[in-house]
Write a structure and sequence with these properties.
This protein is an alpha+beta fold. It has 3 domains: about 5-85, Uridine Diphospho-n-acetylenolpyruvylglucosamine Reductase, domain 2 (2-Layer Sandwich); about 95-215, Uridine Diphospho-n-acetylenolpyruvylglucosamine Reductase, domain 3; about 220-300, UDP-N-acetylenolpyruvoylglucosamine reductase, C-terminal domain (Uridine Diphospho-n-acetylenolpyruvylglucosamine Reductase, domain 1, Alpha-Beta Complex). It has 6 helices and 21 strands. A 6-stranded antiparallel β-sheet has the order 1-13-12-16-8-7. Strands 2-3-6-4 form a 4-stranded mixed β-sheet, with no helix packed on it. Strands 18-19-20 form a 3-stranded antiparallel β-sheet. Strand 7 (about 95-100) and strand 8 form a beta hairpin.
Length: about 300
């Protein structure tokens, strides 16, 4: 059951905000596709306590959007109204809590979580090395790679709500599926306790090295992309369907279906979000017409068209 860990009113006089508030900030600087319009406001919190204080300072009606490493995300060219909160390397603390548990905050890149667990002689998180996002993003979409998924590791969660309260929750309070997670409204991930099992650092490092080598061989990691664009349909692979439909290398403006991995759309240097979204629609239409399967986007599309 949920438990409120801290309320803003618990502190008689809240300290001044310590983060960085920016206005009309280009979100192309914060997304892995390197596209996207401006945010009305973007806040870079100093830490979790500062994040809570900032949320407490906002009007309840203010639209809020959380952003990590900006992978698995397409921000439209018109940008995002309201306030974007970027946690990348801002909520960055990790520690060992018990013999088999690790506490990690939402802004830590997933690959760093994998390396930290390995260094602590804990196994089970190696697949996180292949996920190009933060732990918060991995929690929000049940990210997975190389046969592993995020939520089977989760023991407990710390959330923050619109009023700046920290709330403790357990996995049973969320609906978790393939690349989808639903939970309490107007709450966001601050940290997670992950349960792992004893392992040998050498074995974990070897496995991560193999996973990263496989990723580099199969995916266009040298070009801006969001990661996989479409979810794999039951019993099949989006990349196979896209390639079988003759779409590898097809481009619209600066957006191109990768010639290396068909379920990646890359920015060849000058793409706009509209070109990427139009290419996504072309792929869905062509695969639907030729293969009889309607691909569902894995990436999240947000913001306003220009």
């Amino acid at each position: 059951m949920a438990s409120v860990l801290h309320r803003p009113s618990d502190t008689p006089s809240r300290p001044p905000l310590r983060g960085d508030l920016r206005y009309n900030e280009p979100l192309s600087h914060y997304t892995s596709w390197r596209v996207g319009g401006n945010a009305d406001r973007l806040y870079l919190p100093a830490d979790a306590e500062d994040l809570a204080a900032f949320l407490h300072s906002l009007a309840v009606s203010e639209p809020v959007f959380f952003l990590g490493l900006g992978s698995n995300l397409l921000v439209r060219d018109g940008g995002i109204r309201g306030t974007v909160i970027c946690t990348k390397n801002r909520l960055k603390h990790m520690r060992v809590m018990a013999a088999d548990r690790v506490y990690a905050e939402a802004g830590v890149p997933s690959a760093q979580v994998a390396k930290f667990c390995s260094a602590q002689r804990l196994a089970g998180a190696e697949f996180l090395a292949g996920i190009p996002g933060t732990l918060g993003g991995a929690l929000a979409m049940n990210a997975g790679a190389f046969g592993g998924e995020t939520w089977p590791l989760v023991e407990r969660l710390i959330m923050v709500d619109r009023l700046g309260n920290f709330v403790g929750r357990v996995p049973s309070e969320f609906g978790v599926g393939y690349r989808t997670v639903s939970g309490p409204a107007d709450e966001w991930f601050v940290a997670a306790e992950l349960r792992l099992h004893p392992g040998e650092p050498e074995i974990s490092r070897s496995r991560m090295k193999s996973l990263l080598a496989a990723r580099a061989e199969k995916q266009p990691i040298q070009q801006p992309s969001c990661g996989s664009v479409f979810r794999n349909p039951p019993g099949d692979f989006a990349a196979r369907l896209i390639e079988a439909s003759g779409l590898k290398g097809v481009s619209i403006g600066g957006a191109q279906v990768s010639e290396k991995h068909a379920n990646f759309i890359v920015n060849t240097g000058s793409a706009t979000a509209q070109e990427i979204e139009t290419l996504m629609q072309l792929v869905r239409d062509r695969v639907g017409a030729l293969q009889g399967i309607w691909l569902e986007p894995e990436c999240r599309i947000v913001g306003e068209a220009r």
